[in-house]
Amino acid sequence: MKLTPMQYKDYVWPHNPETYTITFERKVAVKKVPFGRYSMQDLGLTYRVMRGEGEFAGENAYAEFKKLASVFYQGGAGILVHPVWQTAEAYFVELELTQQPLEDYVRYRFAFWETSPLDTALIRVSDSGETAGAERAAVPPEEKHYTVVRGDTMWGIANRFDVTLTALLRVNPQIKNPNYIVTGQRVVIP
């Protein structure tokens, strides 16, 4: 079976890395309640992490590694096309040489962190203060409320109303700990 080559932003691997692992994680908040019991709240999935190892061999091996390193130094998120898993927007967060590089042989490790749906909705502000990426959404003048029911999370409420968690917390300063909300509590929806 011929796999598609792995690529990130404008870099295409000349051959796919030898190994990769993908890690999924779910965050759960735990709050102690009376009589030795605990209340648990599902905070949702965290970012997915893809790690791998590979090598470049041949007369231009070190030059190929330098091309990969230049993509790492660009920063910012990009599209990661993986030969087996689904395509995702990700950050290139680690690049490591695992031995002394030679002109004709380089062994390396890498890691990517997949962005969450919330990341794409957040407003990114550059050093100059200008916004980039998503545009600011106009907030309607009328105030909407939601009453918390059993099993709700702030993240879940934000998703239900198609707002970012950051925006939801900004208009609800009374919520000091976003990991702990109680049934019957009123939440303002931006």
Q: Can you offer a commentary on this structure?
A:
It contains four helices and 13 strands. 13% of the residues are buried. It has 190 residues and is an alpha+beta fold. Helix content is 17%, strand content 39%. The chain has a seven-stranded antiparallel beta sheet, with helices on one face. A two-stranded antiparallel ribbon has the order 4-5. The longest helix is centred in the middle third of the chain and has 14 residues, at 61-74.
Quick recap:
The protein has helices at 61-74, 117-121, 154-160, 165-170, and strands spanning 7-8, 11-12, 19-23, 26-33, 37-45, 49-57, 77-81, 88-97, 105-114, 123-125, 131-133, 144-147, 186-189. It is α+β, with helices and mostly antiparallel strands and 190 residues long. The strands form four sheets. A seven-stranded antiparallel sheet has the order 2-1-7-8-9-6-3, covered by helices on one side. Strands 4-5 form a two-stranded antiparallel sheet. A two-stranded antiparallel sheet has the order 10-11.
